[in-house]
Automatic annotation (TrEMBL):
This is Peptide/nickel transport system permease protein. It is found in: Cell membrane. It comes from Novispirillum itersonii. Keywords: Cell membrane, Membrane, Transmembrane, Transmembrane helix, Transport. It comes from the Bacteria. Its main location: membrane. Residues 88-277 form the ABC transmembrane type-1 domain. GO terms for cellular component: plasma membrane. PROSITE patterns: ABC_TM1.
C-alpha cells in the first residue's frame, strides 16, 4: 500500500548547484589556446622541426613557400618553419624565466616592505625607485654589451629590469591589505611576519599579481625581441623571433615570409596573453561569487 504525500506539504528544495570557480568567455579561451599552443611548441620543438635550425637546406636563399618548405627559407637557405618553431623555445622560455624570477623577487620584497615598514621599507623603496629610473632598453643594452650575450645573462638582466615595477605594484596592494582588521587581529595574537605574508597578505593580492605577471611577460617578450633585433639576444646558429627579423630584414622585398612569420609569431603570443589578462578580472569576480 502506498502513501502519497499531501500537496500542502512543501517538498525539500534541491541543493543549489555550486557555480564553477573559474569561467572563461570566448575571448579568454582563444587567448589561452594560443598561449598553450606556443608553450607546447616550446617544449616539443626539437622533436617536431623538419630540419636542423642551422642547416642550409635550400640553395635558393629567401625562397618562397613550397610543399617542401612550408614557410620558405631565410637569407642563408635555412628552413623558416624549423627556426620559428625552435625560436619559440628561446622566446617563450627566456621571457617566462625572466618574468617569473622578477615577479617572485619583486612581490616578496614588496610584501616584506609593506608588513615590516620603517627603515626597511624606506631603504627598499628608495633603492628600487632609483633602479626603476634607468631606461629598461638602455640598461639591457649596456649590460649585455659589457658582459656578453648568453642565456643566463639575458634572463638575469631582464629580471633585474622588471623587479622594481613588480615591487611597487605588490607593495601598494600589500599596504592596503596590511591595514585591515584580520591582519591586525593576526598580529595581536602573535603571528610572525612570514605567517602574515603567506597566509594573510599573499592570498588577497594573488589575482592582481597574476594579472601583473602576464602584462610583464608581454613586456619581456618585446624587450627580448628588441635586444635580439639589435644583435644582443640569442646568438647564431640559434635564434629567437626578434633575431630572425633582424637576420632577414634586408631581404624583405625578396623574401617577405622570412620576416613576416616571426613577426606574426611575436604578435600572436603577445596578443593572446593580453586577451587572457583582459579575461582574468572577470574570472576572479566569478570565483568570489561562487
Amino acid at each position: 500500500m502506498t502513501h502519497s504525500v499531501p500537496e500542502s506539504v512543501p517538498r525539500p528544495a534541491a541543493a543549489p548547484r555550486r557555480k564553477p570557480g573559474y569561467r572563461f568567455n570566448l575571448v579568454g579561451i582563444i587567448g589561452l589556446s594560443v598561449l598553450l599552443f606556443w608553450a607546447v611548441i616550446a617544449v616539443i620543438a626539437p622533436w617536431v622541426i623538419p630540419y636542423p635550425v642551422g642547416e642550409i637546406v635550400d640553395y635558393d636563399a629567401l625562397g618562397p613557400m613550397t610543399a617542401k618548405f612550408w614557410l620558405g627559407t631565410d637569407y642563408l637557405g635555412r628552413d623558416i618553419l624549423s627556426r620559428v618553431l625552435m625560436g619559440a623555445r628561446y622566446t617563450v622560455g627566456i621571457s617566462l624565466a625572466s618574468v617569473t624570477l622578477a615577479c617572485s623577487l619583486g612581490v616578496t620584497l614588496g610584501m616584506i616592505a609593506a608588513v615590516s615598514g620603517g627603515w626597511l621599507d624606506t631603504l627598499l623603496s628608495r633603492f628600487l625607485d632609483a633602479m626603476n629610473s634607468i631606461p629598461s632598453k638602455l640598461f639591457g643594452l649596456v649590460v649585455v654589451a659589457a658582459v656578453g650575450s648568453s642565456l643566463p645573462v639575458l634572463v638575469l638582466t631582464m629580471a633585474v629590469i622588471y623587479v622594481p615595477g613588480s615591487f611597487r605594484f605588490a607593495r601598494a596592494l600589500a599596504v592596503n591589505i596590511n591595514t585591515m582588521d584580520f591582519v591586525t587581529a593576526a598580529r595581536i595574537r602573535g603571528e610572525r611576519t612570514p605567517y602574515l605574508i603567506l597566509s594573510e597578505i599573499l592570498p588577497n593580492i594573488l589575482g592582481p599579481v597574476l594579472a601583473d605577471l602576464g602584462l610583464r611577460f608581454v613586456f619581456t617578450v618585446l624587450l627580448l625581441s628588441g635586444l635580439s633585433f639589435l644583435g644582443l639576444g640569442v646568438q647564431p646558429p640559434y635564434a629567437d623571433w626578434g633575431a630572425m627579423v633582424r637576420e632577414n630584414i634586408g631581404g624583405l622585398a625578396f623574401g617577405a615570409p622570412a620576416v613576416i612569420f616571426p613577426c606574426v609569431a611575436i604578435a600572436t603570443l603577445t596578443i593572446s596573453v593580453n586577451l587572457l589578462i583582459d579575461n582574468l578580472p572577470q574570472k576572479i569576480r566569478d570565483r568570489s561569487d561562487a
